[in-house]
Amino acid sequence: MKKLFALILAVAMILTVANFALAEDLPVITIMFHGSNVTDDTAVLEAVNAYIADKVGAKLEVVWGTWGDFDEKATNALTSGDSSIDMVFTCSWSSDEYNTYAKKGYFVKLDDLIAEYGADLVAAIPESLMQAATIEGAEGMGIYAVNGFKDTATQNTWDVNVTLLEELGYTLDDFKAMSFYDFGDLFAKAKEVKGDSFYPFLVEPMVLERMVTGSIIVAGDSGATNLLSLYLNQEDVSAEGPYGNVLLNKFATEEYRKFVEQMHIYYEAGYIDPSLAVAETSNDTRTNAQKSGEYLIGTQSYALGYEHQASEERGIHVEFVPCTAPYVDTTASQGAMMAISTASEHPVESFKFLALLNSDPYLMTLMNYGVEGIHYTLNADGLVEFTDERANYSPWTNGMGNVTILPDTAAEGAGFREAFKAYYAEAKAIPSLGFVFNNEEVTNEMAALGTVAAQYALALDAGALDPETALPEFLAALDDAGMQTYLDAANAQLAAYMAAK
Amino acid sequence: MRKSKGQSATLNTFGPGAQAAFHAVLGLFALLCIVPFVFVIIISFTSEDSIRQIGYSFTPLSWSTQAYTYVFQLGGALWRSYFNSFLITFVGTSLSVIICILYSYPLYRRDFRYRGFFNFLSFFTMIFGGGLVPTFVVCKTLLGLSDNYAALIVPMLFSPFNVIVMRTFFQTTVPRELIEASTIDGAGEYRTLIQVVLPVVKPGIATIALLNALAFWNEWFLSLLYLTKNMDVMPLQYLLMRMQRNADFLAKNAGMLGADAAKAARNLPSQSLKMALVVFIVVPIACAYPFFQRYVVAGLTIGSVKG
Amino acid sequence: MMYPAKAPSRRRWNKKNFWLLTMAAPGAIWLLLIRYLPMLGVVISFKDYRAQKPNTFWNNLIKSEWVGLKNFEFLKSPSTATMIRNTLLYNAVWIVLVLVIAVLFAVMMSELKNRFMAKAYQTMMFFPYFLSWVVASYFVLAFLDPTSGMIPSIQKSLGLKPTQFYMTKEPWPIILTISNLWKNVGYSSVLYLAAITGIDTTLYEAAAVDGATKPQQVWHVTLPGIRPMIIILLIMSVGKIFNADFGLFYNVPQNSGPLYPVTQVIDTYVYNTYANTHNMGMSSAAGLLQSAVGCLCIIMTNAIVRRLDAESSLF
Lengths: 501, 307, 315
Fold this sequence. Notes:
The structure holds 3 protein chains of 3 kinds. By secondary structure, chain A is of the alpha+beta class. Helix content of chain A is 46%, strand content 14%. In chain A, helix 11 crosses helix 19 (443-461), helix 16 packs across helix 17 and helix 19 (443-461) packs antiparallel against helix 20. The radius of gyration of chain A is 26 Å and the shape is globular. Helices cover 76% and strands 0% of the residues of chain B. Chain B has 16 helices and no strands. A two-stranded antiparallel ribbon of chain C has the order 1-2. Chain C is mostly helical. Chain C has 13 helices and 2 strands. The chains are: A alpha+beta, B mainly alpha, C mainly alpha. Chains in contact: A-B, A-C, B-C. At the B-C interface, helix 1, helix 2, helix 5, helix 6 and helix 7 of B face helix 1, helix 2, helix 3, helix 4 and helix 5 of C.
C-alpha cells in the first residue's frame, strides 16, 4: 500500500514537473540557411536562444544547408508542406527561386507583418531592396521575403594578373586602354614567354559574353543558359541601352556574332584552355589556375575588397578592372533573401526573428561570426579576429541577411562596412529594375530552348565551335524550339511592366 | 558431395587450350576493372601541384600523403560516419535479407493461395512509383523517418528486384519434393523454411546479402533527404557526396555568386582528398566481398541436394 | 491469379496459407506504406501543383487544379525524338551485350580449374560496381582531357592534331558502351555464376556418362539451368528500357552540350529541364510516362516468355 502510494505520488510529481516544463516551453522556429559550413552550433544557439526568448518569444533551431544539399532540402520542405521548416533562404538563382515559389504560394506575404512588427526592419534596409522584393505572388502584389542587405549591385570586371602583365612589359594602364578585341598581341606575347602549355585567357565564357556585349541577366529567364539579352547603356547604366527596353534573342544579335567570332580566333590560337568549354570541367580548371596564378586575364563578378584577398591567396598582384559601373538589376537585388513558409505554424514569431536578425547588430554578429571569446575575439582596434573555432562555425555571411550591421574584421580593415555601404549605395539602377519574366505560360518552350542552348552556347562562348557553321545551326534549332514565342511573351510582359512603371 | 564434384572436375573439363583462353579473356577484363581503382589510389597520393599542372595522371609529377593527413584531420566526424556506415549496412542488410527471404519464399510455393497477389504487389512497385516528394511526405510526417538511423534504413528495407532474384534461386535450387517430404514429416512452415530450405539456397542468400550490403553501403541520397539537424548519424558515403555536390553547385553558380563562389571554392577539399575518401569507402566493402563469395563458391562445392 | 486448392483438407489449407501469409506480411506492409501510399502522388502529373490553404501536402494535392495533359507537353520539344531514340537504342544494345558477355564470363569462371584465379577474377570484376559514375568519369577524363589526357597527349607527341573529345560526338556511342559494359558485366556475371552453382552436379555427371563433351554439357545443362535467371533479368531490363542510367549519361560526358545529340537521354533531359523550370508536374509526368512504357514492355515480354516457358515467366 505504501509502495503504491509512493508510486502515485512520484507519477503526480513527474506530471506536475512535465506540465510546468510544458508551460515554460516556447514554440520552436526553424530556419534553413544556404552554403553553410557548420559542424558545431551549440554555443551559438545557446546564446541566441537566451537573447531572443523575450524579444521573439520562440526558441530557434537551424538547418545548416550546404551548397550541395540546400536545393533539394529546401524544395522538398516547401513542396511537401513540411511544417517543421519555418524560414527558408530564397533568391533569384537557386532552385527555390523567389518569384516562382512566391507565385506558387509557398511563401507567406509579409506586408501585414511588416506593418505590425517591422518598424526596425524597414529602418535598417534601404527602400530599394524592399521594392526589389515586391512582386506579384499568390496573394497579389507584395513582399514575400526579407531581402538581405549585401553587395546588391552587379559589376563584371577583368581579373588581371598584374605581376605577369608587367613581366611581359605592359602596365595596367596599357591594359585598361585595350578592348576585348585587341588582346591578341598581349596573349601571343604571354604564350611566347610562358610556353605553349600556358593559357593566358582564363574565362567564365558566359560571364565574358555579358561583359563584352554589355548584356544583363533577365530575371525569370531560363536558368542554366540564359536565352535573353537586355543590352545596357555601358556609359550610363541608368539610361536606356542601344536597343531600348527590348529583350533580344541573345544569340541572334550582331554583338554576339562578333564576340563568338573573336573567341574562336583566340581559342584556335591556343589562348584558352579547352577544358573551359565543358561545363563540368571548367570550374576545376579555373579554380586551379587561379590558385596557382597561372593566367594572365580572367573574368570576375566583383565584390568590393576582393582584390586584396585574391592577391594574397594567389601570391600575385591581382587587380580587377571594371567593364561598367556597378548596376542594380533585379537579379542582383534578389540575390539573398529569407522567406517564411506557408506551412509554418509560427509565422509571427518567425517574422519577429527575421526582423531582429536584420536590424540588431548583436544578433547578426552572433549568428554570423559566432560567440565572442569562442569563435572570435576583438583586437585592440575593436576589429574582429577569428579563432580556430571559426572552422567549425562558418555560415555563409552574405546569405544570412543584413551584413552591413556586422562589425569590421581585422582582415577587411577598419571602416570597411561603411565603405561597402557607400559603394553600393552609389550604384545606379537600370531602367527595367524590378522586371521579372513570368515564364509560366512558356515553360515548355523554355524547356526545349534550354536544351538547345546548353548544346551550343557554352562551347560557342568559349570559342570551341566555329561560328561559321555552328551559329546558323544553333539559331535554326532555337527557332524550331519556339524562340519567337518565348521572346514575344517576354517582350509583351516587359512592355507592360515599363508602361506601368 | 565434394568428392563427386572433384571427380567430375578432373574427368570432365575444358582442355588446357580452352583454359588458357578463358584465363586470357577473364584476366584482361578483370584487369580493366581494377585499373580505375588503382587510378583512384594514385590520385589520392598525387600532390596538388601535379593535379594543377597535368590533371589526373597515372604518372604524376610528384607524390604526397597530404590527402590522407587531411582525412585523418577530419577526426571525429570521419570515424563517426565510418561507424555509421558499418552500423547502417549491418542492420540494414540483416533486416532486408530476412524480409526478402520471408517474402519470396511464399512466392515460390505454388500451393500458396495468394501467391499471384503478392507477386504482383511487389513487382508493380518496380515499375510504378509515387515520386520523390510524396514518398518523402509519407516517410517523414507519417512514419517519423527524420534525423535518425531508421530514416537511412527503413526506406531501403525491401527491394522487389531482390525478391525476384531470390524467388528464382528458390525455383532453380530447391526441389519441390523437399518441401513435400518435410511437410509430410509434420514440420511447420517456418521450420521447413529454416531447417530444410535455407541450407540449400545459401548461394542465393549470399547473393542478395551482397546486393543489399552494397546498396546500403553506397547509399547517400536518403541522408540528403532525411537528415537536417542531426548530422551525427551521417554515413561516410554522404560525407563524400556532400563534398562533391558542394563543388558542383559552386561550379554551376559561380557566375551568380561571384566573389562568394571563389571564396567558398577555396575551402573545398582537393581532388586527392576526395579520392582518399573513395579509398576509405571502397576498401571495407571490397574486403567483405570474399566473405559473401565464399558462400557462392561453397555452394559450388557442396552441390545441390538430390530430390 | 489464384491457384486452386488441391489440398486434402480445408483446415490444413487455411493453416498453411496463414503461416505463409505471416511470412509475406512484413514485406507487404512495407510495400503498402512506402510504395503504394505515395502512389497517390501520381495525380501531380495531371495537376498544376501549388500550395493551398492550409499548406499541407495532401491538401495541396487535392485542391490543386486539374490541367489534363498539359504537363506532358514537354514531349513536343524538337529534342524529344533524339532523346527517346538514344534511350531506347542504347538500352536495347546494352541489354543484349551485357547478357551475352555476362553469361559467357559466368560460364568461363565456373569452368576454370584454378579455383583461386576464378575467385580473384570474380572479385576484381565486381570492383567497378563500387565506384560511382562520378569517380569513373575522372578516369575517363584522364584519357580524354583535351590538355592533359592520355590520348590527346599521344596524338600530340605523334604530331597529330589532338581530338577534342568533349566537343566531338562521333566516338561517344562507343565510349558510353565500353563504360557501361565495364560497370555492369561483373555484377550480372556474379548473379549468373551464383545461379550456375545452384545447378545439380549430378546432371553433369549424367551428361558425361552419356558421352557429352564439355561444350555440349554447357549447352545442354548449364544454359538450361540458368535459363530462369536469364529470363528474369531480361524481363526486368526490358521493363527499364525507357529509363537510362543517369550518372553514365551525365557525369561521364561531363554534361558537355555539343555531345547532346548522342548523350541526351530521357533522364538527363528531365533533370536539365527541371533545373531550368522547377516544374514538378513535368518531372512527375515524365516519370509516369517512363513507368507506363516500362509496364507495357514488361507485359509484352512476359507474355512472350509465358508462351515459351510458363515456369520462368515473371507472373
